[in-house]
Design a protein that fits this description.
Strand content: 5-15%
Order of helices and strands: HHHEEEEE
Shape: flat
CATH topology of the largest domain: SH3 type barrels
Strand order of the largest sheet: 4-3-2-1-5
Radius of gyration: 24 Å
Largest sheet: 5 strands, antiparallel
Structural class: alpha+beta
Number of helices: 3
Oligomer: single chain
């Protein structure tokens, strides 16, 4: 099966999943409205009867099931999107290796620096948000470096970029903490440098604020600079012999 055919099938499946997501959302909204109306009646009557307790218990049970069903479909949506993006990247790499470029995807060597910086920021903004169960952690994949020939490297020579964006409100333990040593992408460059976390993100859309090591400053660190979650990774200290 060709990549184009597979992508077309996945897009069709994604379309159906999105329709199911909307149906689940409409169902849950109807039930949430019933919960709200029941609470309003209780406040009007100023009493909590066994009838209302039983009714609310059933409504909340249904609301929980609706939320779990919607969450399950959303996970399938994210899986389909990730699979489509992976196939598109494989097709782009295959075309690059074959020397075939489209107008919308020129060779890396002809890209202006400003265009490359914009692509890096867009990649960070579209990083999927990880929605995990309590105690569940994200997985990461190795990503080929753009603009160079493919190399074969050992695992110890590779630092993978995150596949998911962590939500500080639900998974704060997945984020680097203040004063932690990391490697971060220096703004307007494609190089990672050692830095200290100045301020972790407070919301999913926020960046890290980091202090880059810089001997030109009296304290050895630059002023705080913002770096997207995607471009902040763990720094492994060299073992002293």
């Amino acid at each position: 099966m060709s990549a184009d055919t597979k992508i077309a099938e996945l897009l069709t499946e994604l379309h159906q999943l999105i329709k199911q997501t909307q149906e689940e959302r409409s169902r849950s909204e109807h039930n949430l409205l019933n919960i709200q109306k029941t609470h309003e009646r209780m406040q009007t009557e100023n009493k909590t009867s066994p009838y209302y307790r039983t009714k609310l218990r059933g409504l909340y049970t249904t609301a929980k099931a609706d939320a779990e069903a919607e969450c399950s479909i959303l996970r399938h949506d994210l899986d389909k999107i990730a699979e489509i993006k992976s196939l598109l990247e494989e097709r782009r790499i295959a075309a690059k290796m074959a020397g075939v470029y489209s107008d919308s995807d020129p060779p890396r060597k002809t890209m202006r620096r400003g265009v490359l910086m914009t692509l890096l920021q867009q990649s960070a903004m579209t990083l999927p948000l990880w929605i995990g169960k309590p105690g569940e952690r994200y997985e990461v994949d190795d990503i080929d470096e753009e603009g160079k020939e493919r190399h074969t490297l050992s695992r110890r020579r590779i630092i993978p970029l995150p596949q998911w964006k962590a939500n500080p409100e639900t998974d704060p333990e997945a984020l680097f903490s203040k004063d932690q040593l990391v490697l971060a992408l220096y703004p307007q460059t494609t190089c990672f440098y050692r830095a200290l976390i100045h301020t972790p993100p407070h919301r999913p859309q926020d960046d890290y604020s980091v202090l880059f090591e810089d001997t030109s400053y009296a304290d050895g660190y630059s002023p705080p600079l913002n770096v997207a979650q995607r471009y902040v990774v763990a720094c492994k200290e060299n073992k002293k012999k």
